[in-house]
Amino acid sequence: MKVIVIGATGTIGTEVAKALIAKRHAVVAASRHGEVKVDLEDAASIRGLFDAVHDVDAVVCCAGDAAFKPFAELVDADYALGLRSKLMGQVTLARIAKDHLRDGGSITLTAGILAREPMVGSAGVSLVNAGLEGFTRAAALELPRRLRINVVSPPWVTETLIKFGMDRTLGQPAADVAKAYVAAVEGTQRGQVLDPRRLS
Length: 200
Description:
By secondary structure, this protein is α/β, with parallel strands linked by helices. It has a single domain, classed as Rossmann fold, CATH 3.40.50. About 40% of the residues lie in helices and about 15% in strands. The chain contains 6 helices and 7 strands. The radius of gyration is 16 Å and the shape is globular.
């Protein structure tokens, strides 16, 4: 299959691209700074991606920003970032992708475990992740042409915990998280929230 991976230069996206290539899929790596450029916050940029890359079977999104900070410190701009980037960026991607993917194609978004297992500082992120999970369940009921949409909800990633000097034992390696994305692309699920911890 021909698969676009958005956020392919990030911690998870890099491993997702590797895993798909290992399964012999043709991967188009897209990011804000890569050779194939796309900005989730710009609908015209997303449309431009699909105008430039044709005959796509699946799109995987591993991108999107949101603010992680104590509830009392969150300001309007913090909420706006998550809503604009991670939530509506991926919603817009799905809306545009449905008109460009081949029949039976697949859309895979990224939420996060903080939707269902919140922690101190996660209010802004939990809001966005829960929104993505709800959107995916509902959108799956209405997609045309046998298209499928699912969302991966990763736990903390080991590499990210190491980067921030946190306890690495609380996380899952990005390479293991990537298996959930491959399962979404290759499987038959519709409107499912995939927890990588249950697949490894």
